[in-house]
Amino acid sequence: MDIIYYQHGDRDVNKIALTFDDGPNPFFTEKVLGILKENSVRATFFILGKWAESYPEIVEKICADNHIVGNHSYSHEKGDFDLAETIITKATKQPSKFVRPPHNKTEWCINSEICKKPGVKIINNDTVIGDWKCPGEKILIDKTEEKTQNGSIILLHDGSHRDHELETRPQQMVSVLPSIIKKLKDKGFMFVGLDEMDLIPEHFSDIQDT
User: Fold this and answer.
1) Confidence (pTM)
2) What are the boundaries of each domain within the chain?
3) Looking at the predicted structure, is the pLDDT value of residue 203 above 90?
């Protein structure tokens, strides 16, 4: 099956997109929202259905702040985008326009109805700084500055598919997020939601044949 997906935007345009995976998280997502508001940055949150089910009020806050909510599956597993979509739609009052498969496994979208709907875009990313590995704040800042280019879709995490009570890894990302935003703004990049980005299509079948 030929699947169109999007990994980055137009390289000739200085727009970039911050994306946050695996929330909503009761400890970190609202901190991220506060930082984004202070810096007038719009972002995209790829949320898990199981956490949207547990924290619908945080999903509502994301929407109220004019950010995009995307479908990141129900539990970070293959085949549960459609279950997640039912829950996400209930929380956001609108269908998802963007789906991100966990681990960028585009093939996981093949049998999901949400991925086949007209206008729905499958989103991967091209700028990965490994924030979930907690490499240190300076490394996170330096790697983001080094890797970001025109059209970058930056992968960050405001949560985890694991137990929230035990999850502390987003803390480093939250701590450096203001610095990351400032440095990238100083370099002339414009932060946008994915719906404002000139996304470049790629074909999953082409990848399989190489």
Assistant:
1) 0.94
2) 4-209
3) no
Question: What beta strand segments (E) does 24-95 contain?
Answer: 44-47, 68-71
Provide the phi-psi class of 40: left if phi over 0, else alpha when psi is between -120 and 50, else beta: left
DSSP-assigned letter for residue 199: E
Tokens representing 178?
């203001």
Burial classification of residue 201, based on how many CB atoms lie within 10 Å of its CB (0-12 exposed, 13-18 middle, 19 or more buried):
exposed
pLDDT score of 152: 98
pLDDT score at 161: 81
* CATH architecture designation of domain 4-209: Alpha-Beta Barrel (3.20)
The mean per-residue pLDDT over the stretch 104-113 comes to 92
Identify the residue whose tokens are 């790629």.
202
Q: What separation in angstroms does the CA of 25 have from each of 59, 136, 197?
A: 10, 21, 26
